[in-house]
Amino acid sequence: DAMVIQNPRYQVTQFGKPVTLSCSQTLNHNVMYWYQQKSSQAPKLLFHYYDKDFNNEADTPDNFQSRRPNTSFCFLDIRSPGLGDAAMYLCATRGSDVGRTDTQYFGPGTRLTVL
Amino acid sequence: GENVEQHPSTLSVQEGDSAVIKCTYSDSASNYFPWYKQELGKRPQLIIDIRSNVGEKKDQRIAVTLNKTAKHFSLHITETQPEDSAVYFCAAIPGTASKLTFGTGTRLQVTL
To answer: Environment class of residue A1 by beta-carbon count within 10 Å: exposed (0-12), middle (13-18) or buried (19+)?
Structure first.
């Protein structure tokens, strides 16, 4: 069964047109992460939530925002996508499973294309 | 903050040979070291991890070793198969942090 779900899997948007990516989890994990991954690079952390506590990375552009309305869902909003924002966006979770408190579980990702 | 270096960036081995990928980390407080395998267009998948109270861990053809003194850890894949071809990322987490610091990745190609 899918544990970390991302929708849509593929998203095409126009330059400057706001877009929202969603992530949901069935693990009841208290930590959720958003990463940006460009071709042939490691995932780059944008921000994460520890419960409702939002933690932004210092180099995450203001163009990227996030919402976490409840434990299960987390959203990534890109207010004005530029060509450089085309990438794979990965959601991940981390929880309090006994013996596995450090493990991050990744969703399948959303590939964003900006035209 | 933590910095993780990973080598080599590309690795080509023949089927059946062994592959070794090495990582070094900078933060002596790091205590959790996962390895992720990422096939083209897919999510990173955890293949093995090790904690700082253990020196070696093995799971079938995959093993990870950790040298805390030297601050390096390595992934060993034996009897490689074509389906092992992927990009492998090492990572580290300092004990008090919530964040993974990834290495730069190693593209492994297993040839017939």
So the answer is: exposed
DSSP 8-state symbol, B55: S
CA A110 to CA A33: how far, in whole Å? 14
Cβ atoms A21, A76 nearer than 8 A: yes
| DSSP letter for each residue of B10-28 | EEEEETTS-EEEEEEES-T
What confidence tens digit (pLDDT) does each residue in A21-66 have? 999 999 888 899 999 999 889 999 999 999 899 999 999 999 999 9
Chain A residues closer than 8 Å to B42 by CB: 108-109
Residue of B nearest to A108 (CA): B43
∠ Cα B100 B101 B106 (to 5°) = 115
Q: Which two tokens stand for residue B31?
A: 């205590």
